[in-house]
Design brief:
five-stranded antiparallel β-sheet, 38% helix, disordered N terminus, 326 residues, alpha+beta, three-stranded antiparallel β-sheet, Beta-lactamase
Length: 326
């Protein structure tokens, strides 16, 4: 299939990488290649469209040639080389559901420090693991962030957005008070070149039976996840765990159980985010290290609630096979 790398975030991600040189260990090694990925894409962007198509047609047989997934759209990108290993309808605009919480976390983290204490203004709904945050509880921002991302809490997203709003408005004068967090999420999408992505709310929850809370393409989400894993790895590290035990300021505990059923089947997982609504179907994005510091991003949109996990597992396994041939 034609491989048309189109990501143009090399300067942004290089800056993000420079800000995070203090990170250490295997996690850092897995992310070093992300910046290089964008330089490779810049090179491909300079080639004539016909040249990339001819090169793709002349390539050897891929392990992905016989792959069939349930999802409506998907993309698999090897970040070190910038090579698109697989794509299916990668530029089609589809509902994003809770993948929306990734840019939310990025926006909120600009103004709320991890140690800042948030007083929960109302009881949140129960998560899939049966956990919730209660009105009046006082939690550090990092724990509300973990709860929101790992358990995919819509109310958690709204609480984070509410607490960040005034500071984001002060930081970005063009934003509107009361919706500054949402404004910054859309502004961030624009600055990262996510041309098919926009957000109508901060959680990704469907606005109505016919209107999603956010839209974007698989290719856009690959850009976003690559940026998130590089710019703010500490925020998303918890999404690679089965769950976290969180402790509030009073010493009371609650748990955030991961909604990613494919987690156990993906060794080297760096970050992941699930999404599901009636309009979106099942979405899932992951960044993982395929070995020897070869980070890969996999995005699936428009699958079923369980099919998204099978789709991503298949794409991850196939990516490992394809990498082993190189």
């Amino acid at each position: 299939m034609p491989q048309e790398p189109q990501i143009q975030l090399h300067e942004v991600v290089q800056q993000a990488s420079n800000r995070n040189l203090h990170l250490y260990g295997a996690f850092t090694l897995a992310l070093i290649g992300v910046a290089a990925f964008f330089f490779v894409f810049a090179y491909f962007d300079g080639l004539p469209r016909e040249a990339t198509q001819t090169a793709a047609a002349a390539s050897s047989t891929s392990a992905f040639d016989s792959v069939q997934i349930r999802g409506s759209a998907a993309i698999v990108v090897e970040l070190n080389s910038g090579k698109v290993l697989y794509e299916k309808n990668a530029d089609v605009q589809l509902p994003l559901a809770s993948l929306t919480k990734v840019p939310l976390a990025l926006a909120v983290s600009e103004v709320l420090t991890p140690e800042r204490v948030i007083t929960i203004p109302y009881d949140t709904g129960f998560t899939e693991g049966g956990q919730r945050l209660l009105k009046g509880e006082r939690w550090k921002t990092r724990d509300v962030m973990h709860f929101t991302l790992i358990a995919s809490s819509n109310e958690g997203a709204e609480i984070l957005a509410l607490n960040a709003d005034s500071a984001l408005h002060a930081l970005y004068a063009s934003s509107t008070p009361g919706t500054a967090t949402l404004w910054r999420m859309n502004d961030l999408a624009h600055s990262l070149g996510l041309d098919r992505t926009y957000f109508l709310n901060v959680s990704g929850l469907d606005e109505s039976a016919t209107q999603s809370g956010a839209y974007g393409s698989a290719r856009d989400m690959a850009k976003l996840f690559a940026y998130a894993a590089t710019a703010k790895p500490e925020i998303f590290a918890g999404t690679a765990k089965d769950g976290l035990l969180l402790v509030d300021e009073a010493g009371d505990t609650t748990s955030a159980y991961n909604t990613n059923d494919a987690l156990g089947a993906i060794s080297g997982l760096i970050m992941g985010k699930t999404g599901y609504t009636d309009l979106a179907g099942g979405n899932l994005g992951v960044v993982f290290d395929a070995g020897l510091s070869q980070p890969i991003v996999v995005i699936v949109l428009g699958s079923s609630q369980q099919g998204r996990f099978a789709d991503v597992r298949l794409l991850v396994e196939t990516a490992r096979k394809e990498i082993s041939k190189e």
